[in-house]
Protein 1
Amino acid sequence: MKVLITAGPTIESIDPVRYLTNRSSGKMGYALAAAAAKRGHSVLLISGPTSLEIPEGVDFIPIENAAEMYQAVASQISRHDLAIFTAAVADYTPSKIAEQKLKKAEDEMTLTLKRTKDILGSAREAMNFEGILVGFAAETENLLENARSKCLKKRCNLIVANDVSRSDIGFDSSENEVTLVYPDHSETLPQDSKENLALHLIEIIEGI
Ligand code: PMT
């Protein structure tokens, strides 16, 4: 299969030296890319900035912000049979990037943000993607309910949900525990290294 994977965080500039980002290390997405390549698939990894090495045999497009990730996915997705979205994409970005470094003045300052495009949510409609679509859901409450709603709304074959309120799994840890949420049922996999989980997930997705 030809597999597209998004990974890592996005960084949204405020001014030339400051930005908004999140705690994604990229480990889950890079482990999936390595696992898919190991299983003989052709893999394109589209990633925000991380400190990880690009897995062997994997094609790579680096991006910085949510708008660049949207463009990269939109231009590539139609060439793929499977798309897996593990990236932690900013939902909001500063409305304006200041040209010069912002100076401190008042005791409080307000930053105005605007919505970014939902890349996973655009795959079926705006990008006309007809392949297997797998999203992730980073939840701190109502894991199953929120993940199922994402699965149905974004017309995914599968949502891989993780509880990101726990520090031993999810963001920036080496292990994860995920619940596979399909349109009509769900199944929790035991906690394991992201590498082992990634291999297991790729095998499960091959079954779809
Ligand atoms: O990178 P690690 O440190 O290994 O951590 C892994 C992880 C916790 C980041 C990963 O397992 C995970 O949960 N990724 C999804 C993070 C996320 O942003 O979840 P969400 O519930 O906010 O988004 C739902 C889905 O929509 C995700 O597939 C996301 O990639 C996608 N999305 C979100 C916003 C947006 N503008 N465009 C998107 O495509």
Note: The chain has one domain: 2-94+109-207.
Protein 2
Amino acid sequence: MAFLELRGVSKRYDTVTALQDVSIAVESGEFFTLLGPSGCGKTTLLRTIAGFIKQDGGEVLVSGSSVDRLPPHRRDTGMVFQDYAIFPHMSVAQNVAFGLRNRRVARGDIGELVAGALQTVRLSDHESRMPHELSGGQQQRVGLARAMVIRPQVLLMDEPLSNLDAKLRIELREDIRDIQHGLGITTIYVTHDQEEALVVSDRICIMSQGKIEQIGTPWAVYKQPETRFVASFVGRMNFMDHLPEEVTSEAAISGIEGAQDIQAYLKHVASGSVVAAIRPEDVLIVQAGDLPPAQALKVSATVKKVSFTGREAEYFVQVPKDIGLAVHVTRPTETLVAAAGAAVTLALPFSSLLFFDAGTGKRD
Ligand code: ATP
């Protein structure tokens, strides 16, 4: 039995459907992330779990029992907000102790619990400071300590890093993941940042317009996206609404195992009912003297643009029929970096190509 379960949860605000028949099952100790663009219903879902929002339909269950009739303060959840929401007139230690006092924890135990929580978030030296004497990242650590110290059954985090600068975001997301793993608190985490979701999560639930698009491990949602939306939202993806004839020709696919099936498939793509997709890092630029991989479609292309960043290079290339592709190369060679305007051959490994139904957007 899943620890936290939502069954067919729906919520409407006047004309807006914020959640539509959402069902998820989160395991005990899991780091579960709700990921999606602004307005897709992430916050509504999180606040429904916390009890701040009452859903129109469906159930929320913890350990198999419905919590729908419980008010927020009886749901045993800890919440970390985007804007820290710590009390400005209380010191760090008082902020962290607040929830414990509210829960009538014995006075003698409070000091030890607060010290432990501050140590976990690496703020032991700052317990007497006031919030205005802390950086944004430190304030959010206080928010995290305050939510954790009550040892909630479920920790809910609503975009906790979005007010921090890029460097701090990266630092704190590692901390959050390590702390969560260390404590084993079941966590529901909201973000619209796909990279953050990939780094911190055990599983990711990708949402669009109030509906679930896919639930899976970071690896699964990146490598095996089930819909065109997921493929485009998580990481970068090249989509080809049609393929150049050159790719579908006998010559391009001869030598590929199962060539006949592939030929049939590519005709399907050429008919316009299927969209082909490939990640920029999966496209290979075949250089003079290289043997192109046998299991790949070959296509000639022109390099339109090269951005060299030292460790890697981004190319924008054009293949026949005006199809533009981004190509990501790690450890680029000097010849390749100087390739703007050059004619090159691309290899698209068949195993890296994904196909989506042009109408429904589902993986074909
Ligand atoms: P963001 O990343 O911008 O916070 P979100 O994915 O968390 O977005 P929600 O805040 O859950 O999205 O909102 C889902 C939809 O419901 C949006 O279209 C939003 O405009 C709408 N909505 C949310 N709260 C209300 C409300 N109180 N009244 C009316 N509409 C609302």
Note: The mean pLDDT is 88.
